[in-house]
Design goal:
This protein is an alpha/beta fold. The chain has one domain (5-227): Alpha-Beta Complex (Spore Coat Polysaccharide Biosynthesis Protein SpsA, Chain A). It has eight helices and seven strands; from the N terminus they run E-H-E-H-E-H-E-H-E-H-E-H-H-E-H. It has helices at residues 18-32, 49-59, 73-83, 104-108, 128-145, 161-164, 176-187, 211-227, and strands at residues 5-11, 36-43, 64-68, 89-93, 116-121, 156-160, 191-196.
């Protein structure tokens, strides 16, 4: 397999972290490969995220911008990002900078004999309630879906691009992480887990822990239970 790398980020009201994430993508990505593409998905942001992306595109002309006029949800942003990748390996993380690109090198050099290198948080920089909810969520997901990774909720993943793009992903909520990992598992057993740091938010607020988002995620995951029972061919 060649070593082309696609890096993409979903951005939603993350104007304050655009410069950090995009500049680090080109900085660290170019140290790993000379076949790099960087993609930013603006998922209908209401702040000046899109303006910041266009500003960064002037500094990095190879930056690809995918703009959603209306918010499609976290899953919708990931699906859009995946569909725009073209390289052999695909890495994504959130645009809010709670994960940093300096640890991508660890995933990159551990990809040999793997198809998916999945991060897991070694310390979660969230309040007590979110930490408790997060642990309960992880326990339930592992028990119900038998996912092959330590932390399915850790959006810091390096994946075989050919396998990833062959998946028929459809969840538009946060349930897409379960759908993605489980469908990857249906196509490969070559997973590896690596620890990554999780940082405090430096801009904006999380929108995941709202009643509507949580309800949509749980609803999608309930539907996935029957859909993912049998391996996908």
């Amino acid at each position: 397999m060649n070593n082309g790398l696609s890096i993409f980020f979903p951005f939603y009201n993350d104007a304050g972290t655009v410069e950090l994430m995009i500049s680090h993508a080109f900085l660290y990505g170019s140290e790993l490969t000379n076949d790099l593409e960087v993609i930013a998905v603006n998922d209908g942001s209401a702040d000046h995220t899109l303006d910041e992306l266009y500003r960064m595109q002037k500094l990095y002309p190879k930056l690809k911008i995918v703009n959603h006029e209306k918010n499609r949800g976290y899953g919708g942003a990931l699906i859009s990002g995946i569909n725009h990748t073209t390289k052999d390996w695909v890495f994504y993380t959130d645009g809010d900078a709670q994960y940093r690109l300096d640890e991508l090198v660890n995933l990159w050099w551990n990809k040999h004999e793997c198809d998916v290198v999945n991060g897991f948080k070694i310390s979660r920089s969230d309040n007590v309630i979110r930490k408790v909810v997060g642990k309960g969520y992880q326990w339930a997901i592992r028990r119900i879906f038998k996912v092959p990774v330590v932390d399915v909720d850790c959006d810091y993943r390096l994946m075989n691009g050919h396998i990833l793009r062959s998946l028929n992903l459809h969840c538009t909520s946060g349930a897409i992480t379960v759908e993605m990992v489980k469908k990857l598992n249906h196509k490969t057993i070559r997973f590896k887990d690596l620890p990554v740091k999780h940082y405090d938010r430096i801009y904006g607020e999380s929108t995941f822990f709202t009643f509507s988002n949580i309800l949509k995620t749980f609803s999608d995951e309930f539907k996935l239970i029957s859909e993912l029972k049998k391996p996908i061919k």
